């Protein structure tokens, strides 16, 4: 009997390989910031991320197929009946595991920005651009862009991803595949942004990851969660300020003010920061999936 093997322990997710056909993705309660895994978990976060991602995968298949094979534990067990799964504790996986197709990963993170903020705002202040794309003069922090922009980065398993131009991406992947990735990234963003705004959330930016399954482009990894997206409270939004977020910016803000140098081992999170962070994730889940 083939063994289900742990092949990668990421910042948040654990990947188990079922031969060359499937991956089992388990969303943990780990939280990362500034390229470090923090020592304090956010209990319940993994299940929330999994629910949000599954929600979006179910609703965006008309834009692009995705890698989901099964998301219910009973169905996952049935699909893995031919594998030795003794390494798993099934009682701990309900609500936080999905079985997916194993694909050839596209080694770029595909970021779409609808508002000027974060690292994009810093670059714009210096150069009038974001990831090399020239933007209109006179924009203010957190201002909505005239049109969403596609800004890929190279995919790094360790350390920082590097900004690249679309032309560099096209040179690496070929213009046809790169063009389709850009087109689908923007379509996914626009669909989600409109949906979220009707529920009181502004989608400032997000990242997508893609893979090839038998040569076909599909959406993989996660989709439109607080870990991969910047969600803002529409009611509190104001141009020129950093808006209230439904994501791990709460943790980043605490770390920024803690005195941590971002090079040494990160500090443990206080209980109130853990509670506050979980509350943000719960609010995001409820607003996204309500009704």
Quick overview of this protein structure:
This protein is an alpha+beta fold. The protein has helices at 45-59, 73-79, 118-127, 166-173, 175-197, 249-257, 271-289; strands spanning 2-3, 5-9, 13-18, 22-27, 32-33, 36-37, 68-70, 83-84, 97-101, 104-105, 108-115, 129-130, 133-134, 144-154, 201-213, 216-220, 229-233. The strands form five sheets. Strands 10, 11, 14, 15, 16 and 17 form a six-stranded antiparallel beta sheet that branches. A five-stranded antiparallel beta sheet has the order 2-3-4-9-7. The chain has a two-stranded parallel ribbon with strand order 1-8.
- Tell how many strands the DSSP assignment holds: 17
Helix/strand structural class: alpha+beta
- Estimated helix fraction: 25-40%
In percent terms, what proportion of residues is strand?
25-35%
Q: So what's the overall shape?
A: globular
Q: What do the pLDDT scores average to?
A: 93
How would you explain this protein's 3D organization?
- The protein is of the alpha+beta class.
- The protein has two domains: 2-102, 2-Layer Sandwich (Phosphorylase Kinase, domain 1), CATH 3.30.200.20; 105-247, D-amino Acid Aminotransferase, Chain A, domain 1 (2-Layer Sandwich), CATH 3.30.470.
- It is 31% helix and 28% strand.
- It has seven helices and 17 strands.
- The strands form five sheets. Strands 10, 11, 14, 15, 16 and 17 form a six-stranded antiparallel sheet that branches. It has a five-stranded antiparallel sheet with strand order 2-3-4-9-7.
- The longest helix has 23 residues, at 175-197.
- The mean pLDDT is 93.
